[in-house]
Amino acid sequence: MSTLFLRPDDVARIQRNQRQINVQRAWRIGRSSALAIAFIGLALWSYQRAQSDARFAVKTIEVSGVVHTSRVALNAVIAAYVGVNLFKIDIARVQASLRTLPWISRIEIEKKLPDMLRIHVVERTPWALVKHEGTLRYADENGVPFAPLSPEVGDPDLPLIVANDPADLQRCVQLVRDLHQHDPLLYSRISEVRPLAPNGFALFDRDLGTIVYADAASLSEKWRTLYSIANAERFGRGAVEYADLRFADRIVLKPVHPIATSGAAIVPAQGAEITN
Asked: How far apart, in whole angstroms, are the C-alpha atoms of residue 83 and residue 56?
């Protein structure tokens, strides 16, 4: 049996190598830490310098998207940010300030170095008029009254909604929007909308000069049938006191003046019920 002889380890040499490795590692860590600290310090110095540098004071504010918003009111808001350091301006605060202007719905803001603030606004679209707190106001797509009726903006044949409850107001605006999108001709004939419980409406037809009671379902189809009946019966503007389209199988019309039959039976147009 042979004996295997191993060379004893050089303990001192191994310890020296380990110390060298530890020193190199510590040097690398220290260098990295020093560079990181220097970088952070430089960044902080640059940030503080930028916040106090007059070159970054806002000199120009560009605003786009304004159509109906008062320029006087707009300038009063944005003037507060002229001369303020660009890096110190809080975008959320600027947006909150601009939202106090009734026509403004959405705001996008961009800081442009060295001294410009660029603002783009999206204004509300008026869908109807509503009497709110004693004044006529425009109502947006959510049925929210937001600005008083203005001669500068005018009234582009917007229907008047008579409703006090916010949910009713929103329901009426939704009807107006649907008609505007799907039946512009019928939309153009409606000048006033009132909500009726639970899901109905009282609509004033400016062409017939009468109130029409209706539900939203099949409104366009029934309204056209109403016009066919009015033409067949030769009802002119103002000749009908009201029309009711809420029935599934008939349309009810009440003339302003009773129809004289002279002993003959009244034969209304198909699908109509004329009541005296």
From this structure: 9
Query: What dihedral do alpha carbons 89, 95, 101, 104 form, nearest 10°?
Result: 140
Whole-angstrom distance, CA of residue 23 vs CA of residue 29 = 10
β-strand partners of 233: none
Lookup: tokens for 44 = 């902080």
Helix axes 219-232, 166-182, angle to 10 degrees: 70
8 vs 45: CA distance, rounded Å: 58
pTM above 0.70, yes or no: yes
Strand, coil or helix: what is 9? Answer: coil
pLDDT band at 35 (very low <50, low <70, confident <90, very high): low
Rg (CA), the chain: 38
Q: In what order do the strands lie in the sheet with 60-64?
A: 60-64, 116-123, 104-112
Nearest to 131 by CA among 94, 107, 159: 159
What letter does residue 193 receive in the DSSP assignment?
E
Q: Which helix (H) or strand (E) holds 52?
A: helix 11-52
In this model, does residue 226 exceed pLDDT 60? yes
